[in-house]
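Notes from hallway chat w/ T.B., transcribed later so I don't forget. T.B. wanted the structure written out for a chain they're using in a teaching module, and asked if we could keep both sequence and structure tokens in one place. Agreed to drop them here.
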Amino acid sequence: MVVVLLLITLVCSAAVGLVYKVTAEPIAAAKDAKISGAIALVVPTFDNNPAENPMTKEVDGGVMTVYTATQGGQVMGYAVETFTNEGFGGTIKLMVGFLPDGSISHIEVIEQKETPGLGDKIDKSKSDFSLQFEGKSPADFKLSVRKDGGDVDAITASTISSRAYCDAVERAYNLLQTIKR
């Protein structure tokens, strides 16, 4: 009985290992495609591949990545992959696009687990919440909800998600400022 159980365990372990090995590369390719797509959505037109030469930095216990988009050798913008752990449903990951002057171009949600119908309205496909950030410079646009003295209109009944979104955007801006110096 022990030998049979050992054989079953061995076969199942080998099967799981094989499935992992077969799917690891397609999963990584899908993640890279999602990042490249998010970069293209948040920065102006570019002719380089920003994902080829990213700059990563550990910030607040997580890793952030800055992608520089150029056209003809001139910087067109920066895409910052940022995060916050303050979301109602946990971690929220965003791709924030900045123009060379530091103003926000566009923001895309990469990953979130907020409450459907409430906090998930941070996603551009579900509401216009993110549009209030576009064209604003965090140097003079206070990245916190009005309830906290900021300039951001929170999503109704989703103040925690709105605060978390602002936190991630501010984290991206602060990192970009340290890089551009």
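Follow-up for T.B.: The first helix runs from residue 2 to 42. Might be a good example for the class.
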